[in-house]
Structure formats: structure tokens, C-alpha cells
Amino acid sequence: MSFDVKRIVTDRTADGKSVFANEGPAPADTVLGLEIHNIWGTGDGGPSVGAGNNSATVPFPFFPGPGGTRFIVVRFPPESAAAADGDPEAAVADAEQKQPGLVGVFEPDTPGMHTTDSIDYGICVDGELFLELDDGAELHVTPGTCVVQRGTRHAWHNRGDRPCTMIYVLVGAERTAG
């Protein structure tokens, strides 16, 4: 069920009329084998809406700070398709240049494993993944599966033979001790 990712953004004019502010393909980057579409983001501290003064998108850093949000679509390639060739340092530098703040959360000694200070709402719309937690426990994620990721250490694995498309809304949170 592969599909093209399209973005429609609405706004309000200074006199309060609702309008379509943007319509078209969603911006995309391919980094570390992932296809990432940055649909929209809001600044830290919480968004606001109004007439004629709505903020532009804030897509970076990739993971929002407390009160910020990100709306993204990610296509995970099959792990069997991962490129073993090339310069890993160059790939990381490319990812950081295209998607600032993405690679810094990943653990260098445990590929794919990462922890973020965010509540992430994810829904699988195509393909399949395995969600792994830090103790090695895994669950199979298939179309229609909704995941609520609450700042836990985890990794995503596509062990299938085709890409998996996930849609996420990330909400920046404060990590508390304990």
C-alpha cells in the first residue's frame, strides 16, 4: 500500500478567514537508509493559534523540547537492504546536516537503540516492524498498530522484505528522576 506523502496546512488571515496556506508533497530526506518526511513542528513551550499570526513550522531539532511537537512520516527499509558499504562517519554527518538532532540520541555501541525525552504516538500504516525494548523484549508492529512510546529505551527493526511506513507525533517532555 505504498503512497505518496502529501501535506495540507491551513491558516487564518488577519481578518479571521480560514485559508489553505500550503498544499503539496511533504518535504523528505533520506538519511541512514530512512526516508523521513517532516510534516510539521511547533516550538517548545506549547503552540498557539490565531488570526494572521500563526507560526511557521519548526521541524528541528528533530526531537522537540518540552511542549514542542513534531509530526513526521518515516519509512524504514528492510534490514536486509541496509548498505554495508560507505563511510559511516560521512553517513552520520549527512544525517545530522539533513535532520539536525536525530543521530545524537542513538547509542554508538548498540545500533538502533535510543532514548528520547518525548512522548511519541506512532501508527503503522504499511509493512511491519519489531519494537525492541532495552531488556530484549520485542513486539510485532503491523498495519493498524498504535504505539505510545513514553521516553523508553528502544529500537525499531524491519525484518521484512519491504519498507515499513510509520506515522509519528512527537511531544517534547521533561524527564524526571526516578
UniProtKB/TrEMBL annotation:
Mark the transmembrane ranges. none
Domain Cupin type-2, by residue range, is 112-169
This protein's name: Cupin domain-containing protein
Record the organism: Pseudonocardia oceani
